[in-house]
Specification:
single chain; 99 residues; alpha+beta; Glutaredoxin; four-stranded mixed sheet; 4 strands
C-alpha cells in the first residue's frame, strides 16, 4: 500500500470550510491521514501546494499530488475519492443535532 496523505486547506472566515470541518473530523476519527491547513496561519504550505481557493482538499500518494478537490465536497463523495488511493475505512456514525 502506498503512503497516502490528505491536506484540507481551509480558513476560519470560509463558510464552506466550516461546513466541511465536522465531516473532515469524522474522516480523521475513522483513521484517514488528514492534515488541517489554515491558509492564513500557514501561507507557505498553501502557496507551495498552489492553493488558489478554499476549501481545497489535496490527496498525495508517496508525496505526489494525485487529486485536488476545490470547493465544498460531500463527505461520502470525498471518501470515495480518497478510497481510490487509501485502504477504505468505516466512518463513525454522524452525531445527530439536538433539538
Amino acid at each position: 500500500m502506498n503512503n497516502v496523505t490528505i491536506r484540507f486547506f481551509n480558513a476560519k472566515w470560509c463558510g464552506p470550510c466550516k461546513q466541511m470541518a465536522p465531516q473532515m473530523d469524522r474522516l480523521v476519527k475513522a483513521g484517514y491521514p488528514i492534515e488541517m491547513v489554515d491558509v492564513d496561519e500557514q501561507p507557505t504550505i498553501a502557496e507551495s501546494a498552489e492553493v488558489r481557493g478554499v476549501p481545497t482538499t489535496a490527496i498525495y500518494e508517496d508525496g505526489v499530488l494525485v487529486e485536488r478537490v476545490v470547493g465544498y465536497e460531500d463527505v461520502d463523495r470525498l471518501k470515495k475519492r480518497i478510497d481510490i488511493y487509501h485502504k477504505p475505512l468505516k466512518l463513525p456514525a454522524e452525531k445527530k443535532a439536538k433539538k
